[in-house]
Write a structure and sequence with these properties.
about 625 residues, TPR_rpt, TPR-like_helical_dom_sf, TPR repeat, Serine Threonine Protein Phosphatase 5, Tetratricopeptide repeat, mainly alpha
């Protein structure tokens, strides 16, 4: 007993001592973190070390100290700390991440990759981080190989390689005329032919020309450029295209240069066509692959880029197409969409509505693409909400639709097609503005059903299917305009997308409008079209067809006209089926119940098919409507 008591007392003292040491270690960790935030990495290392003196198995102290060692370029010590952290916790993602960074700095590329692969094994959701890290290793390894090769080329006396170093030396001469530098930059751009020359440009400080040469820097950064400064800026942009084409390391260095970073949006919006042309060409290089896009999105403030690039819709030359290509590529990046939200209401939408209302005066091919891009941006819920609530945007869309009735050029047709697509996306929202414009939009869509272009007809039906639920007045308007007869005609010949929109339009009308129900019964003798749609493999079409049929059975004689059809079997199949959309089962069950209530003779067929149990379960739906 005495021995056990001693053991228990010792355990309590050790627990108490550990708790006290843990408190001291946490305090020292916070002091180390504070020093790290202030950039005093030596002090941070000292505090973390003192903390480890109090508690040797505290993982956070090892990883924090490893991070500080990376800052002081003590990479071997950083690796050692990460190994200790992993002994404390073998699934510590931060330890593998920092170890990977340290191995990369020591040019241990294989070991670095292994660390990052461990991160993905531990946490598959870190795939984005894994890709970024692996890309960094690949770029660094390629950079080193390129630089080794370039050095050998110079040492071997390769004339092309030597010309790069000579031209850069000449450009370093101070206090020369601006024309001297412009000419030298053009010669240098012409001399850069391949990766070796691009690498020599980088290793010989070619990117420092802006910070080292005041005349070049002043000319490039001038707000109002004279002719010589325009020529200089164009020459620089051409040079940077030559040194950055297909070279990710050079792209990174250029984009992270403070002067270049600040000037990009200014040069894009400068209004000087020669500069804008070369700027667009330079930016296009970054968008040729995923890494370039990420560089651009990560290092540039893109809040104004949507507005700036949209302005090129007014250009009659190739700048418009190039700007739209850039915008289209940027919309694939989530960070760009997030940044677009900032200026959307105040700057972008006023410009966009102005372009729509001036369709006759702008580059219509570019406008069509611009509208399509805005439609794609509507995938972002915040952007879509702002656009859907913009009254001026709806007015501008309707104005363009009206103009298309009088101008039938291919370019205008593309604009109309794009605007209808945009409206469809905006109609995923529901607000008072949409209710306000519902009748006007519906009228335009009814008129567009006469178009020869099937794509436009399909989208017009799509808009109808989404706008009609917003307004009973719009439903009444289109029913009076003969929408049922037109939809039935299109449903007989239309493809799957047209049928999907068409039957949805009919279901909205039939739900609340008696005239629509009667028109449908009259237009679809014995419901041949609806029965065909009920056999579709598209669940949305089937669900809406069953919904339509259920409402039309309220018309006298409608249920009787189906007595010699296989409607009971079809509805029973869907009501008792396993469709992904529960609305298919529910709508089919409701239609089946209504069918038997309106015409009891259908119950005999139902009994033959052993479907009374399904009918009984469907009755609760019938009475709830």
């Amino acid at each position: 007993d005495g021995f056990l008591a001693i053991l228990e007392k010792d355990a309590k003292e050790r627990a108490k001592r550990r708790k006290r040491n843990e408190h001291l270690a946490n305090a020292l960790k916070e002091k180390g973190n504070d020093a790290f935030r202030k950039g005093d990495y030596v002090m941070a290392i000292q505090r973390y070390t003192e903390g480890l003196g109090k508690l040797k198995d505290k993982q956070e102290l090892y990883t924090n100290r490893a991070q500080a060692y990376l800052k002081t370029q003590e990479y071997a010590k950083a690796i050692g700390d990460c190994e200790w952290a992993l002994k404390c916790n073998n699934k510590c993602v931060k330890a593998y991440f920092l170890m990977g960074k340290a191995h990369l700095a020591l040019q241990h590329y294989s070991e670095s990759r292994q660390c990052y692969e461990k991160i993905l094994q531990i946490d598959p959701q870190k795939e984005s981080l894994f890709k970024d890290c692996m890309n960094e290793v690949n770029m660094e390894e390629k950079r080193m190989k390129d630089e080794e090769k370039a050095t050998k080329e110079v040492q071997s006396g390769n004339l092309a390689a030597l010309s790069i170093t000579e031209l850069l030396q000449k450009l370093n001469r101070p206090a020369q005329n601006i024309l001297y530098y412009t000419g030298g930059i053009r010669l240098l751009a012409g001399a850069v032919k391949d990766c070796t020359e691009q690498t020599l440009f980088r290793t010989n400080n070619g990117f420092s020309i802006l910070q080292d040469n005041e005349i070049v820097r002043r000319g490039f950064c001038a707000e109002r450029k004279n002719t010589a400064e325009v020529d200089l800026s164009v020459s620089l942009l051409v040079l940077w295209q030559a040194v950055c084409a297909g070279n990710e390391e050079n792209q990174r260095l250029l984009l992270t240069h403070p002067d270049v970073n600040a000037q990009l949006p200014k040069l894009l919006s400068s209004g000087i066509s020669e500069i804008q042309k070369e700027m667009l060409a330079l930016i296009s290089l970054y968008l040729e692959n995923e890494n370039g896009r990420r560089l651009l999105v990560r290092h540039q403030d893109l809040t104004k880029w949507l507005q700036i690039l949209m302005m090129f819709v007014s250009s009659a030359d190739a700048r418009a197409s190039c700007a739209m290509n850039i915008l289209s590529d940027l919309t694939e990046e989530e960070r760009f969409k997030t940044q677009c939200r900032v200026m959307l209401s105040t700057d972008v939408l006023p410009l966009f509505t102005q372009l729509l209302t001036s369709a006759k005066l702008v580059n219509q091919a570019a406008l069509a693409r611009c509208v399509g891009i805005m439609g794609n941006l509507c995938a972002d819920a915040v952007i879509r909400t702002q656009m859907a609530e913009c009254k001026e945007c709806w007015q501008a869309c309707l104005k363009l639709v009206d103009e298309c009735f009088h101008v039938s050029t291919p370019e205008y047709q593309e604009c109309l097609f794009a605007v209808l697509g945009l409206m469809m996306n905006l109609l995923l929202e529901s607000n008072v503005i949409i209710q306000y414009f519902a009748v006007d939009v519906s009228r335009r869509c009814m008129s567009l059903l006469r178009e020869k272009d099937g794509r436009i007809v399909t989208r017009a039906i799509g808009v109808l299917s989404r706008i009609l639920p917003a307004s009973s007045s719009a439903v009444e308007e289109v029913v009076k305009g003969g929408v049922v007869k037109k939809m039935m005609k299109l449903l007989k010949a239309g493809g799957e997308i047209t049928s999907s929109y068409g039957i949805k339009t009919l279901s909205v009308c039939a739900r609340s409008n008696r005239q629509a129900q009667e028109d449908l019964v009259k237009a679809d003798k014995r419901f041949s079209v609806l029965l065909k749609l009920l056999d579709s493999e598209n669940e949305m079409i089937v669900g809406n067809a069953a919904f339509c049929l259920g409402h039309c059975l309220a018309v006298p004689g409608a249920a009787t006209s189906l007595l010699n059809s296989n409607v009971v079997m079809i509805l029973l199949k869907h009501a008792g089926g396993d469709a992904t959309r529960t609305s298919v089962q529910e709508n089919a069950a409701i239609a089946l119940g209504k069918l038997c209530v309106a015409e009891p003779r259908h119950i005999f067929q139902l009994r033959k098919l052993n479907g009374l149990a399904i009918l009984n379960s469907a009755m609760k739906y019938v009475h709830s409507i």
